[in-house]
Protein: DUF3786 domain-containing protein
Organism: Desulfosporosinus meridiei
Amino acid sequence: MNYSAAHEVALNKFQSCSLEEMSRCSGYPIKDNSLLIDFLGQHFELDYPKGTFKPIQVSDGELPIATQILILHYVSNLSEPFEVGSFISYKELPGGAIYIKPFTGRAIDPLVRIFGSDPEGLLAVAKYLGGQANGLGDVGITYKVFPRVPIALILWRADEEFPASGNILFDASAPTVLPTEDFAVLASTVVFGFKRIKARL
């Protein structure tokens, strides 16, 4: 997929915002002319106004363009979301019911495939990243992908009647933070980010 046009739009919006407003609304701190971004255990300086991501350590690597766009969308949304504390499913997001099948294939199925036989691995990765158990399903965790965007990953173990299954939920404030399609990208990015970290633990 060609992300160049989407990146340009996201970059233009980022550049139209003030650094101070983006820091206040996103929850990311400022250092010099950059936002300090902590994302799935990687750390970057997001330069303002260039919009370039500089790894703080070599081991932080590079961010895929789709992830850069996602972060630019988040920091340039100048609403001030307040977590509701209750979760909703993807199909409860605006227009989400139409795209639930692609969302399931992109995020929930990989979650079950990667962690269904190792739900404790999901818990271990979440704790490593500062997340916590939430008491949902057989194993459920809540992790703040962005400072104001908690996401819940939930697994049910296989038994004699049913295979392992899972779900991914979002705080009810989600529609005020990002467009619905971004949450599909976000959930998939989290699942595969957890997979990457699991391999290191």
Notes: The helical segments are 4-16, 19-26, 65-75, 100-115, 119-128, 180-200. DSSP finds six helices and nine strands in the chain. Residues 87-200 form one domain.
